[in-house]
Amino acid sequence: MKRLNLLIVMIMALGMNVSCTGQPATNDKNPAVSEAGDVEVYYFHTTRRCVTCQAVETVAKEAIVDMYGDRVSFTGYNLEETDGEQKARELGVSGQTLLIVHGDQKINITNEGFMYARSDPEKFKKIISDHITPLL
Hints:
four-stranded mixed β-sheet, about 140 residues, alpha+beta
């Protein structure tokens, strides 16, 4: 009975992990994504979101607005809505993803977001800055 309970808990934990972290590979190339000088940040999510998913969006948006103002855009998309589905297809996104886009370069920082948005937001903001500042 103990083994069955342990197995059930492990399956549930794995399922929760997969649902919140399924993203494409980092630094995919797609020349038609944005203008060469633009840096855009996109956060793709589903309708049902955990506290960490919400923190990733909140901290990322706050960091971008505070550090870059209008020089870097931040847009959140719901993958379960039409515009979110279309943008996800255009960028090759298949799950919850935090993506920095500059010209043909795409930088996926979803894993860092999920690791630090709640536990160490300042570290997460530094990671965002480390990726965006060289692109400007």
